[in-house]
Description:
The chain has helices at 21-30, 36-54, 58-69, 93-109, 116-128, 133-147; strands spanning 73-80, 83-90.
Amino acid sequence: MSRRNISKKRFPETDAIYNSYLVSLLISRILKSGKKTIAKKIVYQAFDIIKKKTNEDPLTVFEKAIRNASPIVEVKARRVGGSTYQVPVEVTGFRATNLSLRWIIRYGDQRVGRSMAIKLANEIIDTANDIGNTIKKKEETHKMAEANKAFAHFRY
């Protein structure tokens, strides 16, 4: 194990409009080829669409979607005695947030629609209402962990 100092966890700065670091995490996940202004435009347009469709604060809808999509347990591959086991492991808070953001963006992008802003807004709204592909992915992850509960003693 390294004797060097442990690096500190760095959080991105909060975004300008909503003053939320979750929104800035979303912007940085949508980012492609370093084009941050386009990513910001997509996110803010999606939030405007959410506001029009739900008549609620888009930040609260987004936070609710993140909470609904965050997994509690996941499986990790662990090699023991020549065979690999899927070991259920609890998910930390930061990783749960990252996974939910990743899933929301992935399944939003896979939706049928014209612009990424519309697709992202619809996925966030569906996730906040506990429906959609993101919630299916979370439930699938939980089912995998439940099915492999017998290997929990291999946890590391």
